[in-house]
Amino acid sequence: MLTVSRSIVLPETELTERFLRADGPGGQHVNRTESAVELRFDVAHSPSLPDAVRERLLARRDRRLTDDGVLVIQARRFRDQSRNREDARDRLVEIIRAALVVPKARVATKPSRASKERRLAGKQQRGKIKQSRSRSWSSE
């Protein structure tokens, strides 16, 4: 069981772990041990996630999310398989906790009269600068 919050607990059956050989330091030992972990979690079909959280997770533009709605996390930070397993699970929990937060709705506002006037004054100023350049070129 992986506890994300009081209301969300992921059973082990929903997590798929695959162990692979990690690159990086480790000498000859690194060629024989499968210390890297690939953790897969099916966001789209998970019964443990509330619908709102599932929608927010699927709406994220995350390269770790496949087209089928499976979140793939690779952990190869450590030389030890157990630490990489723990790291992958911690990262999964962080991602789901981030999706628990409901984003604030953006309130559309109109630009103030003074900001409109400043914008137009700036445009007029730029126009005058460009006009003065064109006149200097034509006199030569």
Automatic annotation (TrEMBL):
Domain Prokaryotic-type class I peptide chain release factors: 21-37
Keyword Hydrolase assigned: yes
Alphabetical UniProt keywords: Hydrolase
Region (Disordered) location: 106-140
NCBIfam families to which the protein is assigned, alphabetical: PRK09256.1
Molecular function GO labels: peptidyl-tRNA hydrolase activity
Highest taxon listed in the record's lineage: Bacteria
Enzyme Commission code: 3.1.1.29
Family annotation (InterPro entries): Pep_chain_release_fac_I
Protein name (record): Aminoacyl-tRNA hydrolase
UniProt keyword annotation of Hydrolase present: yes
UniProt-listed Pfam families: RF-1
Broad class of enzyme this protein falls into: hydrolase
